[in-house]
Write a structure and sequence with these properties.
alpha/beta; globular; Rossmann fold; 5 helices
Amino acid sequence: MHDEQMVSEGPMSDVRTLVVDDSEAFLEVAADVVGATPGFISIGAVSSPRAALGLLVAHKPELAVVDVHMPQMDGIELTRRIKELRPQTAVALVSADDPEHLPPAVRACGADAVLDKRDFGPRWLRSLLPRFGSRRGDD
């Protein structure tokens, strides 16, 4: 199980990104995509929501990509906790399920975006860059 995969923090101009998912395969792909997308840097890829909360406090990510369906604590609850601890962190909930078929709580938990995992990639990440232009320095 992927407890923590840390990548050194880059320049302040890169969007610090945390990925949380119980799927080892998605964690690896997502970490590679984040690392290969200009303007973004991975500060961690973890399978545990509790480990994610620790990284949230320690590394202050600007973006958290969070799986909706995880054991122990689902992405909906993790999103609520992220928004309580660090409201300026944007949260994108991802799921292999069609976003239209997810529970209503997904839309009410404070997530900034809901995305089908199949759409996660460099193009989607790059589409977020304008949103972070105004958030720079909100540590």
